[in-house]
Amino acid sequence: MRHRVALAAFLVTFVIVSAISTGVPAQTETPGLGPAGNLAAIEIEQAGEAILHGRDSRKQLLVTGRYSSGQLHDLTHSVTYSVAPTNVVQIDAGGFVTPIGDGAATVTVKAASGQTATLALSVDQIESQIPINFANQIVPIFTKLGCNTGACHGKATGQNGFRMSLLGFYPEEDFDFLVKEQRGRRIFPSSPEYSLLLLKSTNSLPHGGGRRLEMDSLEGELILRWIEQGTPFGSEEDRVVERIEVFPKTQTMNRGGDQQLTVIAHYNDGSIDDVTRMVKYESNDLEMAEVTRQGVVKTLDAAGEATVMVRFQDFVSVFRARIPLGVKFQSPPAKNFVDQHVFAKLQTLGIPPSPLCDDATFMRRVSVDINGSLPTGDAVSKFLADKDPNKRDRLIDQLLASPRYADYFANKWNSVLRNQQTPASGKTVTFGFHKFVRDSMASNMPYTQFVRRLLTASGDARANPAANWFARFPRR
């Protein structure tokens, strides 16, 4: 089921973008966002509740500086923190709050230039022995540390005799692998600190993956107390995560800037938790932005838009960083609605469109993109000699109308949709599905209709070839 939903999302969001510039206007460069001016005020962003429940709860503060230019910049790691009284919470230099006693406290942050802001926090149930939930609290640790990826224990055959479900999608199986498999040798209830699970993870015993955690870390302490509690899995009455949310969702940043993230998990009982230090962060472009395990996004010396994926259990959220180049330019005329969106994005990022390419380059690029082949010499000569100002538009129409376009994109989509012969399907069904895709491309079927046909197909795949995709990915 997950494969079908993920692939459906990919199909729905697939867009072929072809924006053709008519030239580059005069430009004046102002690197990045320009001067921020003076710091006007600092604010503590309130993400989640102002109360911490129990010893396992944590809270990541976000401190934002508002400047005279109107710009916003993250100051979480550059301000100083103080707490009164001192026996309720501890807070480190990065704004990470840990409860130490029941009660109420006030956190004060102060910028180097003197501006201050305050936040009231409270803590309860610090002495309560709240049962740890395996799926909510333990499995995310293995995902964050990379233990259940396909390159480690998450592959089908496992690693060195120990396997886990990929990215923790099946916590029931992971529980059995950890607690019951190999006669329970990975857990030592009478002396939890000597459990093989912890000794390997901390590299106290030789571990092929090296040290993955420290015993005195949040993750190490949580696993230790889970074993001390008797390795509970949880009950059907326990709350269940429904979604996660990252703050901020978008931010305009300078090159070489930092942005602290906060991640909140929403549960089915209406409660929320700060899981900033329990999620896995992944940057989509390591040449533009990196992200630490603590959720600090660091932009590099490149302009554009970077995306950080945040994963917790089966749930994903996304943070987007806009990193302007800072070039001022006049957008060329848009030839279609796609150009409008592309030029608007380029204006936001301060990145001018590329100059108009020559006719030979255009013909080569568009032929490879649409037909998957180079044009013939005669076709190139004829195109270069043509003086019609609309010859590029005509060429695109000709390529889209040719059989090569349908053949090329049918092969692309059959590969993406994993159309292959199986003992159950046979050649007839496989070839029929390929023909359905090719006919859809040849008839210029809208992609919305194409996706709908795939997702709603039913019946015998020999009579309705689109149903073969449903059969290839049965509901689990």
Shape call: flat
Tell me the radius of gyration. Answer: 28 Å
* Overall pLDDT metric: 86
**Which structural class best describes the helix and strand composition?**
alpha+beta
Q: Number of DSSP helices?
A: 13
- The beta-strand count equals 22
- Taking pLDDT < 50 over at least 5 consecutive residues as the criterion, the unreliable ranges are 1-30
Give the neighbour order of strands across the main sheet. Answer: 3-11-10-7
For the terminal residues, how far apart are their CA atoms?
6 Å
Task: Tell me about the largest β-sheet.
Answer: 4 strands, mixed
**What is the helix fraction of residues, given as a range?**
25-40%
Fraction in beta strands: 15-25%
Task: Explain what you see.
Among the domains are: 1-8 and 356-476, no CATH class; 39-124, Immunoglobulin-like; 134-228, no CATH class. It has 13 helices and 22 strands. The strands form seven sheets. A four-stranded mixed β-sheet has the order 3-11-10-7, with no helix packed on it. A four-stranded mixed β-sheet has the order 13-21-20-17. Strands 2-5-6 form a three-stranded antiparallel β-sheet, with no helix packed on it. Helix 7 runs parallel beside helix 9. With 476 residues, it is an alpha+beta fold.
